[in-house]
Give the backbone structure.
Amino acid sequence: MQKICKIKLARASGEITLHFTFYTLHSKSHTLYILHSTLIKNIMKIKTPLNKKDLQKLKPKQIVYLSGTIYTARDAAHKRLVELLENSTEKSKQSSEATSKLPFNLEGAVIYYTGPCPAKPGEVIGSCGPTTSARMDAYTPALLDAGVIAVIGKGSRDESVIKSLKKNKATYFIAIGGCGAIYKNCVTSAEVIAFEDLGAEAIYKLEVKDMPLIVSVECKM
Amino acid sequence: MRENNNNNDKRIINTEKIKSAVYNLLLDIMVNIDANTVRLLEKAYKNEKCQTAKFTLKTILDNDKLAKTDNIAFCQDTGLAVVFLEIGQDVALEGEYIENAVNQGVREAYKDGYFRKSVVDPLTRQNTKDNTPAIIHTKIVEGSSVKVNVSAKGFGSENMSMLFMLPPQSSKGDIIAKVVECVKTAGAKPCPPIVIGVGIGGTMEKASLIAKYALTRDTATPSKCKDIATLEQEMLMAVNKLNIGVHGFGGDCTALAVHIETYPTHIAGLPLAVNINCFATRHGSILL
């Protein structure tokens, strides 16, 4: 095992920032641990299940590292999820079976907008950075009303989503677009749990560790 | 003038070579983004004042290193393969039909590179499962070489592109205003800092085509025409005043570069196409 440690001292906005980057090369796979250890009290570690009270304490632009269970869904999966949700709402009075058709429990769930690359042999997943969130705007309020506690993507959201986030005390995190390789390394396990026919757009259940995210309620339009 | 030009005067190129060029380029560009872009991102990181944007740029630069170390796709949106072929008129092609050869190169690269297959039928949305067909633009040029130019176009940025059919008397200021409008509408959606390809003139499809072609230039390499290079700088400055910044966190780093291509147009109009690329500018070319 080879370990390289880079320490960089930079002065920005009058504060001193320390960046540690550890590259650890294992015999089989390469793992990169990025630790943006800063003197600014800006980075916070959070774990699923997320708590609405704690989420309310987060401020826009705050950097968090998320660990725990999250579910992937993008355009096609969103359409299906909302259709299932609408069906289940209509039928809920008659049977409890309808809701069980949802591929995962939406209550307290975290949804990540991504369509990953295929995993190389021996790997958990391929590149898996965020996709543009705005395309999910039409579906997001319904999912938030159904209990989804946080969504992760990139770019701005429309008014209806911002209102719904506030109403449901839910949060929108920005993942850093284009950084597929970084996010791939945060995923410790991945399993397709629904809509396998959609390929990259299937719903994956992911276990993540220290996924770098930025709290965003008011991303500039 | 000879009427019966025979193939002895031609340079014979087997389309297998074009297939290999497409294959090798795709495997390379998906992992190694434009080197000039990386330099500009490093510079932006150094100058960035907003802590959130600085963190974002640091993560982007780490992602670049990691993609190279692990030899994996920089971004999961490995895009649509856009292939510009410039075929010398003194070349005689042999072998498989050229479009099939290009598509075979794409098919094999997306499989062997473990890249995402993102191509679907536009109406049924059925995935073709091998990322084909590629978008192929063929041009016959002078000479006896073949230039294979490949880009991987992600759609987060492609979706934010626009076409304007401006009135003929539009000034440079009007053109700049339209480009600014397009970038403003795009906001944080196309993963800024972006690279902007601008096509001015021609017809509606010509403007779009040259805007796309402009993006295959190495990032921030100015136009060879001095006036156009000046306009590129003016546009870049105007766009960077929008305060969108890195990923929408504000600041003056909204775009890394503007590339303009022009073509003569009709007295009655002025087509203007704006094609946006995210910072993951993936393109490369091989001369055969």
Notes: Chain B has a mean pLDDT of 94.
